[in-house]
């Protein structure tokens, strides 16, 4: 699945003519890390994947599909913050 994420991400980048270096600069990631994710060698965190999808203006349906390839459920930001807040109260 991880390699599928990299292939899908690369496809979106190609359509938008966004290089790995551009994605890295705009998201605050290291370019070698972007390359390793695309190659399926590494996995991005939820936050990094979200930043990349934000930079690429990926809409909700496609975003959900891509995050699922990483085994991550997409939660809108406010819902995620509420969940983390509730979780922290019980830990």
Description:
The chain has 91 residues and is an all-alpha fold. The protein has a single domain, classed as lambda repressor-like DNA-binding domains (434 Repressor (Amino-terminal Domain)), CATH 1.10.260.40. Helices cover 70% and strands 0% of the residues. The chain is built from six helices and no strands. α2 crosses α3 (31-38) and α2 crosses α4 (46-55). The longest helix is centred in the N-terminal third of the chain and has 14 residues, at 2-15. The N and C termini lie far apart (31 Å).
What keywords describe this structure?
mainly alpha, 434 Repressor (Amino-terminal Domain), 91 residues, 6 helices
In brief:
This protein is mostly helical.
What is the typical, i.e. mean, pLDDT?
89
Order of helices and strands: HHHHHH
Number of helices: 6
Strand content: under 5%
In CATH, what is the class?
Mainly Alpha
Distance between the termini: 31 Å
Largest sheet, in brief, is:
none
Question: Quick one: how many beta strands?
Answer: 0
Helix content: over 70%
What is the domain total for the residues? 1
Shape: elongated
The CATH architecture can be given as Orthogonal Bundle
């Amino acid at each position: 699945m991880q390699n599928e994420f990299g292939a899908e991400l690369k496809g979106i980048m190609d359509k938008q003519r966004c290089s790995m270096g551009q994605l890295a600069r705009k998201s605050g990631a290291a370019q070698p890390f972007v390359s390793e994710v695309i190659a399926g060698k590494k996995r991005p965190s939820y936050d990094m994947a979200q930043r990349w999808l934000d930079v690429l203006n990926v809409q909700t349906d496609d975003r959900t599909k891509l995050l699922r390839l990483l085994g991550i459920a997409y939660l809108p930001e406010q819902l995620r913050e509420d969940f983390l807040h509730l979780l922290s109260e019980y830990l």
